Amino acid sequence: MSQNTDEAKEKEEECAEQSSAFETGSITVEKSGHFIHCLTIIGQIEGHYILPSQNKTTKYEHVIPQLVAIEESREIEGLLIILNTVGGDVEAGLAIAELLSTMQTPTASLVLGGGHSIGVPLAVSCQKSFIVPSATMTVHPVRMNGTVLGVPQTLSYFEKMQDRIVNFVENNSRISAEAFRGLMMKTGELIMDVGTVLDGESAVSCGLIDELGGLSDALGFLENVIEVRENAAHGS
Question: Which residues are catalytic?
């Protein structure tokens, strides 16, 4: 009877975990005895305004509490962020990136498909960033999404927001602010716009992303960092 109860409990926990992965895009996995949490940032990052229901979105008010819980968890030892995003709300994306960059939990990011616009700061916010060769990243200035700038204070705000993004990327990657601004303001590559599209190899060669790699590389990095921390804690 006890065995049946245990099996039922395990099945219930497994179903709850699968449900959580489906609803929140996150799951905790065990690798070599270490618990690593995987969090996906996909589609469009939703911030202060609710996007149409047909849009695939990542809501920042869902992500931020998860990051706090992961940082305070006694069980989770590493965090993997998987990115496939077109960008979205600049303030919301930068808020998530700032939070990730201040975590003590070992973190790694992996860009699959795309890490465009505000996805760029998110990709570089972790301790180490990876990108698959087929992925692309679009670097461009902060936009107003077609809304007319009506007052000087609004223009000043967007200039300051752009400076925040440039400084954040410079502080969390190997690319200089000057080189990053050059990518943002490049002409002749995007139709009717300024900016640059980088593939995986180009993103690494310019210093924006740390390394070409996939899932096993990102998980392997986290496992190594966790083991180094464990050895240091035990004095070996």
Answer: 117, 140
